[in-house]
């Protein structure tokens, strides 16, 4: 028999009760807030994790010989499910859903002691349940496995089966009462994914000194990709952590605070209102700033950049049964167009290029996506720009194109790209390139000791591309940047080596993408573009540098795992890889090389 037993200390259980879905607003600490005294939290492992026998379920699920090495099975215990895994002759059991968006991990990729999510590429250690690659913040609940006779039984906490997530144990601040409010050990500028993961990682690693995050936003960290994918979401619905989390782990957050300059000599951040804060270690994770239109009439009302939940909510409200013009066939522009297509009277999209996503996905994939949009009533105006925004009584009325076309418009959304939000660093001495990106090394360190940078605003060495310095403004990569920065603040000497992974969602369909295809010279398509069921391999010379797919999960996760293992997929071998995907045989992942 194989018995799977949940090991979940009481304090860990209370954390899961506190944050079952990560949808609450965190506590806001103001600069002049009252200092409080905290102690380092201890985490004893209970000898008997089941304090309430009524919370325990046990069921027989299969025979030990039902699983071969390298196989996974989702098993039902009546009140919840678990993922049973057999690898290298050993059984493991963890939660069956990815804590990020709930993807079924049984459909993911198992390789070398971890399972990778089929939707967005997050990775979890099958022995511990710990998250090892992102996106997402929580780990999987881990269940103990015992073999008795030749049947498999799972004994588990009902609560763990229902929540399907586990927040890693963290330290707390030893004492805030001893601190000057204008001094902190770690200052994090920016409260996006990179900043939050940095703060959490520090606590997970036992760091018990003061951590302060500051943000220009009025909200605490939230799921920013949903601003264009689920535009009517309210801030409390997309918050990454509840307010109790920030209170429990003593992560202070200053909202609506604008850093105007950084004095590296005196290790001080200077805020726009004159407030100054000293730091010992600094993380800059300010992200980017959307580009605005430069045409005549750009100041008229009802022209938006989607930067905050309020922006997205306002656009959805104004667009109902109205005429919408979107400028820019970027990821944001296309996702907004898809979201509004059924809500607005008309949606028009203006783009300078010939085909959407041409530089990123290639012309053939771009045309297939364009066709899907056109079949959903989105009208494209390609190879032109906006020359004027006309108003009536102060509000947008028409969008005039350089081609001479005049479009009726009640709402305009601008998605023409972004620039790094690093202007406040120009006189700091921190190395910034000609485009405004902060240059860092493999450990996310800048040229200034004790100063780190992460997220959309950095250029970093990408191991996948022979350590070429690149900018990868993806949600998953921001998470990993924050983790690597935190580990190196603690002198772990950890280098970044993750494979970029992104996704976009439009009309109920998703395109997954892994790798870094910048400069690709050919695209090899498998499947049917017209049916929107395809895999696209992006090659440079003889090497596959990236892959995209639609309706072919989990092939992108498989490619990501191959690349993560240090292996190379040659252009001539893409058909072989496609065959491996179809058969499920991943044994060729063993070892390195091609």
Radius of gyration equals 25 Å
Stretches where pLDDT is under 50 for at least 5 consecutive residues are 1-50, 588-594
CATH architecture tag of the largest domain: 3-Layer(bba) Sandwich
The number of E-state strands comes to 37
Roughly what is the average pLDDT, rounded to an integer?
88
Distance between the termini: 41 Å
Strand order of the largest sheet: 2-11-1-10-5-4-3
CATH topology of the largest domain: FAD/NAD(P)-binding domain
Overall shape: it is globular
**Domain unit count:** 4
Subcellular location: Mitochondrion
Function: Induces apoptosis through a caspase dependent pathway. Reduces mitochondrial membrane potential.
Family: Belongs to the FAD-dependent oxidoreductase family.
Keywords: 2Fe-2S, Apoptosis, Electron transport, FAD, Flavoprotein, Iron, Iron-sulfur, Metal-binding, Mitochondrion, Oxidoreductase, Transport
Description:
- The protein is an alpha/beta fold.
- It folds into four domains: 108 residues, Rieske Iron-sulfur Protein (3-layer Sandwich), CATH 2.102.10; 177 residues, FAD/NAD(P)-binding domain (3-Layer(bba) Sandwich); 114 residues, FAD/NAD(P)-binding domain (3-Layer(bba) Sandwich), CATH 3.50.50; 73 residues, Enolase-like, domain 1 (2-Layer Sandwich).
- Helices cover 19% and strands 30% of the residues.
- The protein is built from 13 helices and 37 strands.
- The strands form nine sheets. Strands 2-11-1-10-5-4-3 form a seven-stranded mixed beta sheet. The protein has a five-stranded parallel beta sheet with strand order 14-13-12-18-30.
- Helix 3 packs parallel to helix 11.
- The N terminus and C terminus are likely disordered.
